[in-house]
Design a protein that fits this description.
Blueprint: H1 2-14, H2 19-38, H3 40-64
Length: 65
């Protein structure tokens, strides 16, 4: 059993198909943090508005069920 797990781990370690997706996700996260640091007032207001909309939508959905 230990050999099978080791072989699967080596196979996953050498698999590079998802590497580009992870790199793009890290790049987007970095740019998002950078934008939030440069324009904190604008970003925080937008995030607050989005979260308020999500909250009201969830409240309405809970009331209907």
């Amino acid at each position: 059993m230990h050999v099978i797990v080791k072989l699967l781990w080596v196979r996953l370690w050498k698999d590079r198909r998802g590497q580009d997706l992870i790199e793009y996700a890290l790049l987007v996260a970095f740019v998002s943090v950078l934008v939030a640091a440069i324009m904190p007032g604008v970003v925080s207001n937008n995030i607050s508005a989005i979260l308020s909309k999500v909250s009201s939508s969830m409240t309405q959905a809970a009331a209907q069920s």
